[in-house]
Design brief:
InterPro entries: Cation_efflux, Cation_efflux_CTD, Cation_efflux_CTD_sf, Cation_efflux_TM, Cation_efflux_TMD_sf, CDF/SLC30A. The chain has about 300 residues and is mainly alpha-helical. It is about 65% helix and about 10% strand. The chain has 2 domains: about 200 residues, Cation efflux protein transmembrane domain (Alpha-lytic protease prodomain-like, Up-down Bundle), CATH 1.20.1510; about 90 residues, Alpha-Beta Plaits (2-Layer Sandwich).
Length: about 300
């Protein structure tokens, strides 16, 4: 994790806390649920940015005996927590919005508009600070928080204008529901991407059978099996396989291994483990399931 990302997160967190304080005060003074909903979203922004900041600092640690792959998944864990927090806050907004939909309270649209406009400006500043291109799911999850809040701030401003000129109070819970939907969409997306990595499913764009077919074109390879592809972290795919070749010198076999690694590197896979074999193994399918040794077999072996 680059130092610049940590600085961006720190600045974004500071701006978020200022916006949150202003929207809570403004929401209470104006009695606007839409504004308080936006403040609730901003609070999750602050939580997300703070969590992402801590995770980014931890992710800078080099691999050691505790984490031989490094600490990349700390950031994925932070992203997962951020995603869940988005969904939880949206649920609270829906419940309160339903109550106000049935019985809309009086709202001070002038205060609502002033605070929401300041919030929108602040969110645009945060979005600019964090940028829009992210190779790190941790930073991406924080950015999604900010983008969602930017859209919701615009929605609150629209609600304030409608209330000011039409007196239609019911638009306040309607906009808060709109904000909740935006929050859930972003949250579910981050949760899905995080769980995809934690469950070690194949990264998007990578198919084991297609990779095996490409690698089988390397001269000297008889068969490729027991293929696995997963993600160590966001955008860090890893690959392992058994490669059957003819019985030959280690130096010759190593040339084949280097050619395989070169092809994998071209496909975007930086980390690979290749097991070279000169005879068929017990597991000869493309995707192999390890044999389970039951108690009777274990007793027989000993």
């Amino acid at each position: 994790m680059k130092q610049v990302s940590i600085k961006k997160l720190s600045w974004a967190l500071a701006v978020t806390l200022i916006i949150f304080s202003g929207e809570v005060i403004g929401g209470i003074l104006s009695n606007s649920l839409a504004l308080l909903s936006d403040a609730g979203h901003v609070l999750t922004d602050a939580f997300a940015l703070g969590l992402s900041l801590i995770a980014s600092m931890v992710m800078r640690k080099v691999p050691d005996y505790r984490a031989t792959y490094g600490y990349q998944r700390i950031g994925i864990l932070a992203a997962l927590i951020n995603g869940v927090s988005l969904v939880v806050i949206a649920m609270f907004i829906f419940v309160e919005g339903y109550k106000r939909f049935k019985s809309p309270p009086e709202i001070n649209s002038d205060v609502m508009l002033a605070i929401a406009t300041a919030g929108l400006i602040g969110n645009l500043v945060m979005a600019w600070i964090l940028g829009h291109k992210h190779d790190d799911l941790n930073i991406k999850s924080a950015w999604l928080h900010v983008i969602g809040d930017t859209i919701s701030s615009a929605g609150v401003i629209a609600a304030g204008l409608i209330i000011k000129f039409t007196g239609w109070l019911i638009v306040d819970p309607i906009v808060s529901g709109f904000v909740g939907v935006i929050i859930i969409i972003g949250g579910v997306r981050v949760i899905k991407e995080s769980l995809w990595i934690f469950l070690e499913l194949s990264p998007a764009g990578f198919k084991a059978d297609e990779i095996a077919k490409v690698l089988s074109k390397v001269p000297g390879i008889i068969n490729i099996h027991d293929v696995h592809i997963w993600s160590i972290g966001h955008g860090i795919p890893a690959f392992s396989a058994h490669v059957q070749i003819h019985d030959q010198k280690i130096s010759e076999a190593d040339c084949i291994r280097k050619e395989i690694e070169h092809m994998l590197l071209h496909l975007g896979i930086l980390h690979s483990v290749i097991q070279m074999e000169c005879a068929e193994c017990d597991k000869n399918g493309l995707y192999c399931t390890p044999k389970t040794i039951d108690a009777a077999d274990h007793k027989h072996q000993h």
